[in-house]
Design goal:
This protein has a domain at about 20-50 and about 60-130: Cytochrome c-like domain (Cytochrome Bc1 Complex, Chain D, domain 2, Orthogonal Bundle). The protein has 5 helices and no strands. The protein has helices at about 20-35, 35-40, 75-85, 100-115, 120-130. The structure holds heme C (HEC). Heme C (HEC) binds near residues 58, 68, 78 and 91.
């Protein structure tokens, strides 16, 4: 492990480097509010009853803020979800391939992950490693 797990004093302190830049988070915000907030809520808190299937055998939009299970999915899976949506898997989320560029999708995921505590981020980071996608922090990258 190259990340020190001891430097996690509180949820609000970002003690570790993340794979995205602050610039990406700033660019992701308006994209999120335009394309995602109507379902996942402007603050990414999603539906309170996201675990309960509705009458049409679908699930409500889950929170993306780290309280549900978005952090179970490595980065390629999150990118795929936004590109392909959930309909091919029997869900109801629309696909965004063709509407959003790969860079815009990464900016959106950066904005979403900026809501995650360091604890959640570290577990997610470890899962990426296990899935064979170790992420290099790009904190200083331009895009
Ligand atoms: C029409 C409502 C709707 C919109 C708009 C929408 N989503 Fe979703 N999203 C869902 C639903 C519902 C699910 C659960 C899976 C399913 O049913 O397809 C989901 C699942 C997800 C997941 C997987 C979460 C997890 O914990 O596994 C991610 C990531 C996600 N959405 C991101 C986005 C992003 C980013 C946008 C905007 C570009 C967006 N969604 C727009 C309804 C929506």
């Amino acid at each position: 492990m190259h990340i020190q797990k001891t430097t996690v004093p509180s949820e609000r302190t970002v003690a570790i480097e993340r794979w995205y830049s602050g610039d990406m988070v700033v660019r992701g915000e308006p994209l999120y509010q335009t394309h995602c907030a109507s379902c996942h809520k402007p603050d990414a808190s999603g539906s309170a009853n996201w675990k309960e299937m509705t009458a049409d055998d679908k699930y409500p939009p889950p929170p993306l803020n780290g309280t549900a299970h978005t952090w179970h999915h490595p980065l390629p899976a999150l990118r795929r979800t936004v590109r392909m949506g959930g309909i091919p898997l029997g869900g109801s989320m629309p696909a965004f391939a063709g509407k959003l560029s790969d860079q815009e999708i990464d900016n959106l995921l950066a904005w979403i992950q900026s809501h995650w505590s360091d604890q959640i981020y570290l577990v997610w980071d470890e899962r990426n490693r296990q899935a064979g996608n170790p992420l290099q922090p790009i904190a200083r990258a331009e895009q």
